[in-house]
Design a protein that fits this description.
Strand content: 15-25%
CATH topology: Extracellular Endonuclease, Chain A
Structural class: alpha+beta
CATH architecture: 3-Layer(aba) Sandwich
Number of domains: 1
Oligomer: single chain
Order of helices and strands: HEEEEHEHHEEEEEEEHH
Helix content: 10-25%
Radius of gyration: 33 Å
Shape: globular
């Protein structure tokens, strides 16, 4: 009897071991009640979201408000169209020429003031590492002026603001007669317009290679810094700054000049008047691209001198 009971128990144990294990019942998950205060939101990246950047709204810089003529970028590999954003003005810089392609700046009453001319010409520390930094000594004995693109008197808010215009990235080799003659005449006229309550968007630069200074013709200074053959400037004049670019109409005035970078101070700045359209053809740039195209085409085809 005991033998039969033992056999029966053994059989039950064997059968029990061969039965699949019953999976445990998962615990009941209590879902939280959603309220406006605890509604689950999508997970966001840990880095701060960056606004979409375009060449014309980079950092909201007011000096690019009218557009980025060459679509310059802050990519250091873009060595000959490198965008340099400063609070006081914006540049497109060329590493191979060691000078700016163009400078762009806003001019109105608020930018001018009583700050004294700082006259502290110096290398620009904002250039990418490894790039040649022009110094004032590179102009010594050259026969060319250290010519401003953004004039120092256009930035008279404070000594610091004025000082920014003496960074050598804002300087180009200019024939003394041009720099101190018709070029400065237009600079003074532009400030007169700003003093009247107008707002100006100005872009200036040099084109080509080979100018003429006090010591004769030259294509480079110290074999490194390109000497432009011509100097150019285009200006968009807003009569009602409060409206911004929305106030630009087909009657809005534009001013454009192309001046040979050589000696000879005779004449007035108006003698070098041309159209914005002609300067675009010369340089390959597109000026005032943030103005509606139909209006842009009309105002750029007129001489406003």
């Amino acid at each position: 009897m005991r033998s039969q009971l033992a056999i029966l128990l053994t059989a039950l144990v064997v059968v029990g071991c061969n039965q699949p294990a019953t999976p445990p019942t998962p615990p009941t998950v209590v879902q939280p009640t959603k309220t406006p205060e605890n509604t689950v939101k999508p997970t966001t990246a840990t880095t701060q979201a960056t606004p979409t950047k375009t060449p014309d709204n980079e950092r909201g810089n007011p000096n690019l408000k009218a557009g980025n003529p060459s679509k310059a970028t802050t990519d250091v590999s873009n060595v000959d169209n490198y965008l340099m954003l400063k609070p006081e003005y914006v540049l497109s810089y060329s590493k191979s020429r060691n000078l700016a392609n163009w400078a762009s700046w806003q001019l109105n009453k608020s930018w001018m003031g009583d700050a004294k001319r700082q006259n502290n010409f110096r290398p620009d520390p904002a250039l990418p590492m490894g790039w040649f930094r022009v110094t004032t000594k590179d102009y010594s004995g050259s026969g060319f002026d250290r010519g401003h693109l953004v004039n120092s008197e256009d930035r008279g808010q404070s000594a610091e603001v004025n000082s920014s215009t003496f960074l050598m990235t804002n300087i180009v080799p200019q024939a003394p007669d041009n720099n101190q003659g018709v070029w400065v005449q237009l600079e003074e006229y532009s400030r007169d317009l700003a003093k009247q309550g107008k707002e100006l968007y100005i872009i200036a630069g040099g084109h080509g290679t080979g100018g003429e200074g006090k010591n004769g013709a030259a294509s480079k200074l110290k074999g490194k810094i390109a000497v432009p053959a011509t100097m150019w400037k285009v200006i968009l004049v807003l009569d009602d700054p409060a409206k911004g670019l929305a106030g630009v109409t087909t009657n809005t005035r534009t001013i454009a000049v192309v001046m040979p970078n050589k000696q000879g101070r005779d004449g007035k700045w108006q003698d070098f008047c041309t159209t914005v359209e002609d300067v675009q053809k010369l340089t390959g740039y597109e000026f005032f691209s943030n103005v509606p195209p139909d209006i842009q085409k009309q105002i750029e085809s007129k001489k406003g001198c």
